[in-house]
Amino acid sequence: MAHLFKLIVTLLCLGLQCGLGQAAAVDLESASSSSSSEATRDWWQVAQFYQIYPRSFKDSNGDGIGDLQGIISKLDYLKDLGVTATWLSPIYTSPMADFGYDIADFFDIQAEYGTLKDFDELIAAANERGLKIILDFVPNHSSDENVWFEKSVRREKGYEDYYVWHDGYLNATTGQREPPSNWLQAFRGSAWEWNEQRAQYYLHQFAVKQPDLNYRNPAVVAQMKRVLTYWLDRGVAGFRIDAVPWCFEVVPDAQGRYPDEPLSGYTDDPDDSSYLKHIYTQDLPETVDMVYQWRQLLDDHKRIHGGDTRVLMVETYSGLDYVMEFYGNRTTKGAQIPFNFQFIVGGEGDKNNTQLNAVGFVKIINSWLSQMPAGQTANWVMGNHDQRRVGSRYGEDRIDLMNMLQMFLPGVSITYQGEELGMTDLDISWEDTRDPAACNSNENIYEQFTRDPARTPFQWSSEQNAGFSSNSTTWLPINPNYLTVNVETESAANTSHLKLYKLLVQLRQSKTLQYGATRCAAVNDNVVAIKRSLSGQPTYVLVANVLGTSVSGVDVASVLYASGSYKITLLNPQAQAAVGDSVTLSSLSLPPYAALIVESV
Description:
This protein has about 600 residues and is an alpha/beta fold. The protein is built from 18 helices and 24 strands.
């Protein structure tokens, strides 16, 4: 994506305070969890969130596309999995140029997903099971087929400046009209598109069919608040806010000119978004204030209508200093959950984390915990619909290890559908490619940009089409490994990714993991060790060999100040041990990729 260059620079330049050498360790009590007592902990602070990509979750009507009734039919699976709340990628009316992130009607449901009646049924069915539904809120842009845009094109009263319009400039040499600036969209090419009817350029920082809304127009701000209120009134428990950093751009100068953005030096491809440093189109302070306003709206809705806290989950891959601002400050509340993407962009921004060692793991963990404002709650996101799957990014030998790590760390866990099964990416051919980020490139380079491999249909069983659909074809191909990697098979097996995941969810309900202090260390290049402790409760220690070489004589006890006797509570198959076995933390031997959680005796 376009923002990766900034992420890489941020990660390379970030001065982390701890865990950077052998046997390095740090206490993170104040940063991670101790600021909120057990008595005051809100539902979301220890929640397990689960992302559903509706198009790929479950097809109920045999058209090869997932839908709301399909989700309803699988709510018992989510309940059994231990999910607290699930957030749905966009389900609003859309021409599907970006599969729902181009919204034609913010107040209705895309027909291939269902109806408002289906949505209300989903809310009711989820409530019956104690599950909460979070919707994706897409504030930066609409579809060009949205009536607001059509009215703006016609300059109808009240809609003239609903979007970002500009005349552009005539080139004195060629006489040709050119865009207002050199700004680039995330999906390759200019962020400006000429509209013949209005005779102006409009800004689109994503696909050409996704014109940017103008948040410097109070009418737009009010309209999007009406969108939030509409869905709150229908019973949603909060929103995941998409593409937050793009909401505001700089104001034009006195002559009405937008400044060009400087070159990044990261790539020679002038159509690639990362060709520029996005200093005028992303991460503006006004965006943070807008999130504060949305938080106030959610709090007001709770105050007026009662019920549980409504949550905001913010998507931003920006530098950590900027991300942390979304939490709020001493006087103003912000998003409860600014997404922590450090396990996605960590490892110096390398998409392939298979060689990331223990020091790198600890850097990633501490980068968040050491910078998080006091009194806030951490969150851990290992993957989503825009990223390669965990098993493909960190390696299949680390699938259980990564789930163990996510569930062991303090705060909120957020799982993308299928990660509990160990689903992996499927290489999608150019002919089968659907993602506009890839389709806007070409057959030779599309694999650098495609997000399709992580969006393949969910694998329910070993039946035809993995039990996802009765149709002869599905909107994206299904990974052939569905024959063994699926809910039915893994539920019946003695050991599986799914069974271990469920056990981790159960362990996560312990008081120690919900409220305990955290101490983290890289014992050497191979071994990550984390201790969770709480007065009057058992102490738990996670030890993981993150590399493909065996280690012996590892002293975890002295690094973590973990005295006493311990026994194994949970482990992955690579650990080659058994639950209940006694362990000596002062001298551990660990096979490649072994991970175990031990409990004080």
